[in-house]
Design a protein that fits this description.
434 Repressor (Amino-terminal Domain), 8 helices, 2 strands, flat, Helix-turn-helix transcriptional regulator, Lambda_DNA-bd_dom_sf, Cro/C1-type_HTH
């Protein structure tokens, strides 16, 4: 019998797989077929009654074109939405590749990286990524504001969409 914590982890993973499959507009039978599993076995997996392995998560991610490391990160973050948010951009896979390169380049010297240095580095990365998104949004809004006068009879709305009459 599973502990409460193990059951919570299984529930998180099953919720995540189902959410990704539905987001990708795939039927259970399509995913089962692509994984080479009987439909009933896949349904058991997705419902949390099957056995989760790293290989199964990786294969599921390949079939659904999602991020296997984001699926695994759901367990630590307690957020199935995180895996959905990373499905297209592969954020966690990119992070793991970067960590692999760091491991290759530093090897044993990784032990000399102090927690304060790591916290500072990762805090800067988070800030840079957040700033990038904010500037991207501001760029689009500014671009629309500046150019909307070129469309006869249109005025930009607050959300950047245009309103006005159709010109024939």
């Amino acid at each position: 019998m599973k502990s409460t914590e193990e059951r919570a982890d299984v529930d998180l993973l099953s919720t995540t797989l189902k959410a990704i499959r539905k987001d990708r507009r795939l039927r259970s039978s399509e995913v089962a077929r692509a994984l080479g599993m009987p439909l009933r076995s896949y349904e058991h997996l997705e419902s949390g009654r099957g056995r989760f392995t790293f290989d199964r998560i990786v294969r599921f991610a390949e079939v659904t074109n999602s991020d296997p490391f984001a699926i695994i990160a759901v367990l630590a973050l307690k957020s199935p939405e995180f895996a959905l948010r990373c499905a297209d951009n592969k954020l966690m896979t990119i992070l793991m590749i970067a960590m692999s390169e760091l491991n290759e380049k530093l090897g044993e010297d990784i032990v000399f990286l102090e927690p304060g240095t790591l916290i500072g580095a990762f805090t800067r990365v988070v800030k840079d990524l957040k700033d990038h998104i904010e500037k991207r949004d501001l760029f689009a809004e500014t671009w629309l504001q500046e150019r909307s006068s070129k469309v006869q009879g249109a005025r930009p709305l607050r959300d950047g969409r245009l309103r006005g009459r159709v010109v024939e």
